[in-house]
Design goal:
Blueprint (H helix, E strand, L loop, with lengths): L1 E5 L4 H12 L3 E6 L15 E5 L17 E4 L11 H16 L7 E6 L8 H14 L5 E6 L2 E2 L4 H12 L2 E5 L5 E2 L2 E2 H11 L8 E5 L5 E2 H11 L5 E5 L4 H11 L4 H11 L9 H5 L7 H13 L32 E8 L3 H9 L11 H13 L20 E2 L2 E7 L4 E6 L5 E10 L2 E10 L1 H27 L1
Parallel strand pairs: 1-2, 1-4, 2-3, 4-5, 5-6, 6-11, 7-10, 8-13
Antiparallel strand pairs: 9-12, 14-19, 15-16, 16-17, 17-18, 18-19
Helix pairs in contact: 1-5, 2-3, 4-6, 6-10, 7-8
Length: about 475
Amino acid sequence: MKILLTGAAGYIGKRLLPLLVKNGHEVICCVRDKSRFNYPERFSMNVKVIETDFLDARSLAVIPNDIDAAYYLIHSMSDTSGSYDKMESASAYHFINRLSSTKARQIIYLSGIVNDKSLSRHLSSRKAVEDILRSSKIPCTALRAGIIVGSGSASFEIIRDLVDKLPVMITPKWLNTRCQPIAVADVLEFLVRSLLNPQTYNQSFDIGGPDILSYKQMLMEFARAKKLTRYIITVPVMTPKLSSYWLYFVTSTSYRLASALVSSMKVEVVCQDNRINTLLHISPMTYREALQRALEKIQQNDVISSWKDSLASSSFTGSISQYLKVPKKRCYTDRRKKEIINREYTIEKIWSIGGETGWYYADWLWDLRGFIDKVFAGVGTRRGRTHKNELFPGDALDFWRVVYADKKQGKLVLYAEMKLPGEAWLEFKIINNTLYQAATFKPKGFLGKLYWYAVLPFHGFIFNGMLNKLIK
């Protein structure tokens, strides 16, 4: 069957794609930017990638008419204007208008649990999208999930950051709110088994694991899983804004995502109707089992997707391709080169840079720059990287974004997402037996020029030291 997969480059989409291919389906992947969407070459016979922007109805003309079903996995919480709910509604309307001209027999939507009378803005938006999708003549199946636990999920990474970094936590009272977490593997199983199953048509189902826990209990269970002793003290004085800043500074989340999450975490999200477990013969794993599986995936360096690689983790706008060409005019550039001893060794070092590995030289200065960036509402260096020794276009790498990565060619280009009075690129490329390293900065006004000359004294030993470490 031919399946339309929207949000294919997202956290769930990347994990759902191989399951659909494994089941023999032809998958049409909708992405906004082809250059930042990667999938295994062995899938090429079963996968077609099309560029769509669901805020632009005209771009949806490329969706084929002969699709059998469609997954709707789109949300706009990364929008910087603050009007993500309006954007989500507009995208949903454009989606059903286009799908009404196709042969699609089902829409499957991954939503949030919305059974509380007082919903957050985020959950209200999810409910509004569900209502829009259900207004279509095409049967709609809505799967409502709460906290999704899996390697690379936003919820899991926030929990991990808090537990790993804070032996004692002074936390807001919403940490006592109850929720019903579910393993990402179980979410995927529900999505797969619901496909073209008439028993799920025109219905909404809550999906969750067997445990109902407070966020505090979830943190303590994570601490036990990692054999760490942690203390949590809840206080009633933290406002939503203060709570958002607390999450933002301690974890790798962006401020706007932290703000949306805090708003949602004040609302209890517990399943009221889990009949779909019997309907689809699924027994979701416990929270402890979900944690153990996620930790094993991280230890094995087998993280398929991470929320950090999505645009929600930064203020990045536009397509990767528009940042690919490093400018030369009206730019300042620090260029260095050295003859390499072993090409394969140097490439492996370059492709392992950042994250837990560090930047090979004067890491404390990189950390300091990351802290300063956080103070000025930037991304900082806490995002790290998804894979220990692999990089793909679109990946987050500390406060950089990968815009080009070709291991065979030996070329890597990074674009800075830190707060800067201008734009910056860091480029590595190997030509013959020489490694070329270039840091390029395009200043914005007088402040940009002042910034370049202020950091110029540090370039000599930072970039030269890093270059030497990449070779030896």
